[in-house]
Amino acid sequence: YLPLLRLLEAQLQDQRREYEEEVEALKNQVDAMQEELEKQQQAFLQTMQLSPEVQVEFGIQQEITRLTNENLDLKELLEKLEKNERKLKRQLKIYMKAQDMAASQATAVMGRSQRESNMQVAVQRKEKDFQGMLEYYKEDEPLLIQNLII
């Protein structure tokens, strides 16, 4: 029982330490938010003391600053998404090459085994007209094309 108790005690201490770190981080976040709120309140009070024309100009400057920051955030997000897209395209190309290799190997194996089975038993099979990688009914072709375009 002693090793089990030590293990449980160690886990409890780890959890307590993680909890304390999380509480400390949240306290820091609350302090930062309080400081930001105080700054905004001071700026608001100063703005209220200005003339209406200056208040409008100040509001416009604030909105320009906000939109600029939002624009920068969106550009950063766009760059991140483009990078992820390139990564996914590379992975897709690798996956497609692997699929092609696997299909060619499977075809070669099936060809050998089919030749062997043709010698033993004649198997009937229904011929299908395949075009590409999708199997669909001919009457569904316009709907499929429309969905691909959309």
Automatic annotation (TrEMBL):
<protein>
    <submittedName>
        <fullName>MYO5B protein</fullName>
    </submittedName>
</protein>
<keyword id="KW-0175">Coiled coil</keyword>
<feature type="coiled-coil region">
    <location>
        <begin position="2"/>
        <end position="98"/>
    </location>
</feature>
